[in-house]
Amino acid sequence: MKDPTLPVDNEARQIAKTLMRTARSGALATNDPAAGFPFASLVAVATDLDGSPLILTSQLSVHTKLLEADNRCSLLLSASGKGDPLAHPRITLPAEAKRIERGTAEGDRIRRRYLAHQPKASLYVDFPDFSFWRLDVTSASLNGGFGRAYRMDRTDVLTSLDGLADLVEMEAGAVEHMNDDHADAVALYAARLCGAREGAWRLSGIDPEGMVLALGDEIVRLTFPEPLKSGAELRPLLVRLAQEARSRTQQG
């Protein structure tokens, strides 16, 4: 029988990464040995700088207890839109869940990035029975629509942070600076470079390959022309993108 999957190419990688970076919820499947069946639940998601999914769970949740017993899980993310839901991209991410220790540099970064993507979680994020988990993706299965199935390695969907320690350190300040001092440029990124509607868009996160912008419940991703090789490249790139966006405004 012919293999129905297609060779993984850059277009498939970009579809997968955009879906992972912009999704706000997904179906988490955990292992329930007592029942003998997988247990699926709806979870809110965000991403770490490398694209690894992040979830926040309550100790009262069934899936939290199951993850504590067996950290192997699978996360399904899907894009929404008009028409047949199976015509839109979706991705399944087998992963191993790792609980994140609060009060550490990693914990603080994950808390900030999660709240930037899920601002309503601020109501309960610091409740003592809630914990962050990072899902360390082991592989991926992407369906980009009818007849577009791909089996992917973790390196196809995650972004390497090698040599980018300076970007990790400066990302939070860069996001805050752009939102506070260059809100006009952020709005132009969304409207002119992403084709989104005009409005008070805000940056919710920057990573080596792009940035995520939010306006209420709407999320868009702007992929950089080339991945960043160092944090020093970020500011000049943001300036160039703002100039390009303003140029498109004048042309329009």
Counting DSSP H or I runs of 4 or more residues, the number of helices is 7
**Quantity of strands, as a count:** 11
Strand order of the largest sheet: 1-2-3-6-5-4
Gyration radius (Cα, Å) is 19 Å
N-C termini distance = 52 Å
Poorly predicted spans: none
User: β content, as a range?
Assistant: 25-35%
**Mean of residue pLDDT?**
95
Mind describing the biggest β-sheet? 6 strands, antiparallel, barrel
The ordered string of helix (H) and strand (E) elements is HEEEHEEHEEEHHHEEEH
Helix content: 25-40%
Structural class: alpha+beta
Shape: globular
What do these coordinates show?
The structure is a single chain. Helix 5 (165-181) packs across helix 6 and helix 6 crosses helix 7 (234-251). It is built from 7 helices and 11 strands. The chain is α+β, with helices and mostly antiparallel strands and 252 residues long. It has a 6-stranded antiparallel barrel with strand order 1-2-3-6-5-4. The protein has helices spanning 10-22, 62-69, 105-117, 154-157, 165-181, 183-193, 234-251; strands at residues 25-32, 37-47, 53-58, 72-78, 90-100, 130-137, 139-143, 149-153, 202-207, 210-215, 218-223. The chain is globular, with a radius of gyration of 19 Å.
